[in-house]
């Protein structure tokens, strides 16, 4: 199983958990990190540039990388949140990969497959990760989101919003 095999959205989402046995566990441990406060005046959003599926392994890797960067540099004055949830169950029909496998394994070419993982479907411009912080930590929060973006399988961009001074969008990068 390779991650890029599940990046593109194909067909309907397989989400009916009452009919699926042995669903893999979600690897995302926390969805909210840091300190929730009303004093933050900056919001940074990591948004998707493409329509795709993001596996729960990639979301967890992005969460760990961004949270580590934020907690080391910013300290306690941030609130970090994962805004998507991996609902879609991914399936795989395992094939033999050895010499003469075509003689052993034929038929069932479009088999249903077994559950192997979870993924979140994101649309263009949907928010994947969000950081609330103070304006003096703008550079550090952007750096943390760039590190998190490197763990995701799709191109992303950071949208910056000032919360207290004015509710308008300042700059997109």
Concise summary:
By secondary structure, the chain is an alpha+beta fold. The protein contains three helices and nine strands; from the N terminus they run βββαββαββαββ. α1 packs antiparallel against α3.
Radius of gyration: 19 Å
Q: How much strand content do the residues show? A: 25-35%
- The chain-level mean pLDDT equals 87
Most strands sheet: 6 strands, antiparallel
Distance between the termini: 34 Å
Shape: elongated
E-strand count: 9
Number of helices: 3
Q: Give the helix proportion (percent range).
A: 10-25%
Strand order of the largest sheet: 1-4-7-2-8-9
Which structural class fits the helix and strand makeup? Answer: alpha+beta
- Topology as a string of helices (H) and strands (E): EEEHEEHEEHEE
Regions with pLDDT < 50 over 5+ consecutive residues? none
Topology:
Blueprint: E1 32-34, E2 42-48, E3 52-55, H1 56-73, E4 78-82, E5 88-92, H2 101-104, E6 114-122, E7 127-133, H3 138-149, E8 156-162, E9 169-172
Helix pairs in contact: 1-3
């Amino acid at each position: 199983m390779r991650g890029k095999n599940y990046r593109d959205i194909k067909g309907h989402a397989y989400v009916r958990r009452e009919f699926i046995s042995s669903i893999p566990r979600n690897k995302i441990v926390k969805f909210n990190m840091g300190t929730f406060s009303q004093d933050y005046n900056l919001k940074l959003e990591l948004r998707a540039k493409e329509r795709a599926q993001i596996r729960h392994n990639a979301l967890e890797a992005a969460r760990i990388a961004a949270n580590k960067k934020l907690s080391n540099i910013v300290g306690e004055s941030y609130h970090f949140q994962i805004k998507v949830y991996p609902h879609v169950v991914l399936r795989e029909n395992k094939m033999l990969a050895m010499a003469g496998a075509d003689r052993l394994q034929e038929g069932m070419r479009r088999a249903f497959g077994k559950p192997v993982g979870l993924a979140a479907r994101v649309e263009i411009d949907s928010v994947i990760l969000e950081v609330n912080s103070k304006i003096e930590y703008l550079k550090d929060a952007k750096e943390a989101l760039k590190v998190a973006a490197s763990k995701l399988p799709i191109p992303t961009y950071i949208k910056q919003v000032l919360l207290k001074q004015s509710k308008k969008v300042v700059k997109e990068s």
